[in-house]
Amino acid sequence: MAGAPEAHVHQDAQELAAEAADLFLWLADQAIATRGQFAVALSGGTTPKAVYRTLASTQSKLDWTKVLFFFGDERCVPPSHEDSNFLMAQTSLFQPLGIPETRIFRMAGELDPEPASRAYEAIMRRTLGPSSGGWPRFDLVLLGLGEDGHTASLFPGTPALGEQIRWVVPGFAPVGIKHRLTVTLNVINHADVVLFLVAGAGKAQIARKVLEPSSSEAAPYPASLVHPTAGRYLWFLDKAAASDLTVTKQHLSSREE
């Protein structure tokens, strides 16, 4: 199992987005050169959106036709809904870069969650196939962090947290749009690189609880259950999100990775 997460603290959300975009491009170049493609699971949320916009505005020679875009989770809404993770990625990343539809694999949030989750797993199996361990191996999984400690659509106390067989399952959120689709922890934990993107003072307390847990915690937060089996485990935080940490690493540039 991989060791403790590498925490990289950036000056502000803008710098975080720039460094995350640089890391994305670097990893993609390496994967395409080695295996001919780069498979990424995208996250929803404000901080990932800033990363996607930065990627779309970067003058990069990356062959985007070799990138496979999946999603780590989705709200059960149509793809045109304002709360759709797909719509956010479509407007901030796919359309500006002219990504072919054949390289985009969205979760069908408009369908019933159970058949939709099984259909998405079938797409992943056809496109990625299981690795030797029986799980897909994404080159990169992007994750956000909720103030309740959830990540993807893996919420505290929900059945999705205990799933040990399926790749994709229905999720349930306590507030907002309740019905979700989400990849499971084993999918996340078998990625080559897992990257949390966390910005803002509102995330400071939960970031500390996940990164520096106390022995008095009754149960781990969903984000605390992310432990890559062999891949690299990174957290990119801005100073506001890292403000409650008692131990932080100095800023490191993604270009040095």
The percentage helix is: 25-40%
Low-confidence stretches: 249-257
The radius of gyration over CA amounts to 17 Å
Taking the sheet with the most strands, its summary is: 6 strands, parallel
Average pLDDT taken over every residue: 93
Q: In one word, what is the shape?
A: globular
Number of strands: 9
Instruction: Please give the alpha-carbon distance between the first and last residues.
Output: 20 Å
Decide which structural class fits the backbone: alpha/beta
Helix and strand pattern: EHEHEEHHEEEHEHE
Main-sheet strand order equals: 1-9-8-5-2-3
Describe the protein:
The protein is an alpha/beta fold and 257 residues long. The chain has helices at 13-35, 46-57, 85-97, 113-127, 185-189, 204-211, and strands at 6-10, 38-42, 67-71, 73-75, 140-143, 168-172, 179-183, 193-198, 232-238. The strands form two sheets. It has a six-stranded parallel sheet, covered by helices on one side. Strands 4-7-6 form a three-stranded antiparallel sheet. α1 (13-35) crosses α2 and α2 (46-57) packs parallel to α3 (85-97). The two termini are 20 Å apart.
In short:
This protein is α/β, with parallel strands linked by helices. The chain has helices at about 15-35, 45-55, 85-95, 115-125, 185-190, 205-210, and strands at about 5-10, 40, 65-70, 75, 140-145, 170, 180-185, 195-200, 230-240.
